[in-house]
């Protein structure tokens, strides 16, 4: 496993990280989830990602239980805040009240004293950025959070956060968690250049497009049993990627992977990691064997010719 610095910080994270969206505490049995986390740790993954809203706290409980056997300093733990965690008017968003309460709730569920990374899971138009960054800064000063991040913010919103932080001498965000894969590349135009200029790393989710880039979906008529495409909890998300045009691209991409002697997931992950500013790609493995295959993408270098050929296919 190779490791990369997170932004301009001194902390290093594994190029492949393990997430828990749509899996742990939800569609995957706890025992299998814990075995998957154990396999990830064994193979050198030191970066684990979750969120309070994943299965309404259940994912954090599973991740916390799995990691409690390991020394706290040996892994990097990230969670998030924004989405509703109750029915009350203050049970959502990025207000000082909600962030403060959910940070402590996440710490309790995860069974740890501090979070390495705390993400603002979306931009909150109802709360001033200054209010949000001040409570994040307070939590950092209290030692309950080490680094601040955002997820799915636009370039303009990230720029706003940087300006507010600088104006009031608050801790800057050091990491952004966007959707990024061979099919969805919108962050390349504005977000990556802005982030590179300001020392912000990308930690990307859905690097395999919810499984579409694994090559297991051959056509839209015959979907593999037990796959995310047949999972009622996940098929709304995979639907944005699962179409005829993308499957035709995957066939061509798979030919490249075969020529290189690697798997389709390894090709997709190593393609993402071609950007030095991408600190890590979050995989959503549902069983240990998937982790074993995906971690092999760490350290793989694709030649410029291969990258150019891939770009021609993806146009």
Folded structure, characterized:
With 315 residues, this protein is of the alpha/beta class. It has one domain: NADP-dependent oxidoreductase domain (TIM Barrel). Helix content is 38%, strand content 15%. The protein contains 11 helices and 10 strands. It has helices at residues 30-42, 58-67, 96-110, 129-141, 155-168, 191-197, 235-238, 244-260, 264-272, 288-294, 304-314; strands at residues 3-5, 12-14, 16-18, 47-49, 76-81, 115-120, 145-151, 173-177, 201-204, 278-283. An 8-stranded parallel sheet has the order 3-10-9-8-7-6-5-4, with helices on one face. A two-stranded antiparallel sheet has the order 1-2. Helix 1 crosses helix 2 (58-67) and helix 1 runs parallel beside helix 10 (288-294). The longest helix is centred in the C-terminal third of the chain and has 17 residues, at 244-260.
CATH superfamily: NADP-dependent oxidoreductase domain
What's the CATH architecture? Answer: Alpha-Beta Barrel
The CATH topology is TIM Barrel
Fraction of residues in helix: 25-40%
Q: Measured on Cα atoms, how large is the radius of gyration?
A: 19 Å
Number of strands: 10
- What does the largest sheet look like? 8 strands, parallel
Number of helices: 11
pLDDT averaged over residues: 93
**Strands of the largest sheet, in order across it?**
3-10-9-8-7-6-5-4
* Overall body shape: globular
What portion of residues belong to β-strands? 5-15%
What is the rounded distance between the termini? 31 Å
- What number of domains? 1
Q: What structural class do helix, strand and pairing data support? A: alpha/beta
Would you list the SSEs in sequence order as H and E?
EEEHEHEHEHEHEHEHHHEHH
């Amino acid at each position: 496993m190779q490791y990369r610095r997170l932004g301009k910080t001194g902390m290093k994270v594994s190029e492949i990280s393990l997430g828990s969206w749509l899996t742990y505490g939800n569609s995957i049995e706890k025992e299998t989830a814990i075995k998957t986390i154990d396999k990830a740790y064994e193979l050198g993954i030191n970066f684990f990602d979750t969120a309070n809203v994943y299965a309404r706290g259940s994912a954090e409980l599973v991740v916390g239980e799995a990691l409690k056997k390991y020394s706290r300093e040996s892994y990097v733990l990230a969670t998030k805040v924004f989405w509703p965690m109750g029915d009350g008017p203050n049970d959502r968003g990025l207000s000082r009240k909600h962030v403060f309460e959910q940070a402590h709730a996440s710490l309790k569920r995860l069974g740890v004293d501090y979070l390495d990374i705390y993400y603002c899971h979306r931009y909150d138009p109802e709360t001033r950025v200054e209010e949000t960054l001040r409570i994040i800064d307070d939590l950092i000063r209290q030692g309950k959070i080490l680094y601040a991040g955002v997820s799915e913010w636009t370039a303009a919103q990230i720029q706003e956060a940087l300006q507010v932080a600088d104006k009031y001498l608050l801790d800057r965000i050091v990491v952004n968690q966007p959707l990024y894969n061979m099919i969805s590349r919108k962050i390349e135009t504005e977000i990556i250049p802005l982030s590179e200029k300001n020392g912000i790393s990308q930690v990307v989710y859905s690097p395999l497009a919810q499984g579409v880039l694994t090559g297991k979906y051959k056509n839209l008529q015959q979907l593999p049993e037990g796959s995310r495409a047949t999972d009622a909890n996940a098929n709304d998300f995979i639907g944005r990627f699962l179409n005829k045009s993308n499957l035709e691209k995957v066939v061509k991409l798979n030919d490249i992977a075969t020529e290189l002697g690697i798997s389709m997931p390894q090709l997709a992950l190593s393609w993402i990691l071609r950007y030095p500013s991408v600190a890590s790609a979050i995989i959503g493995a549902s069983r240990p064997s998937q982790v074993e295959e995906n971690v092999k993408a760490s350290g793989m270098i694709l030649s410029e010719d291969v990258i150019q050929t891939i770009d021609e296919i993806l146009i």
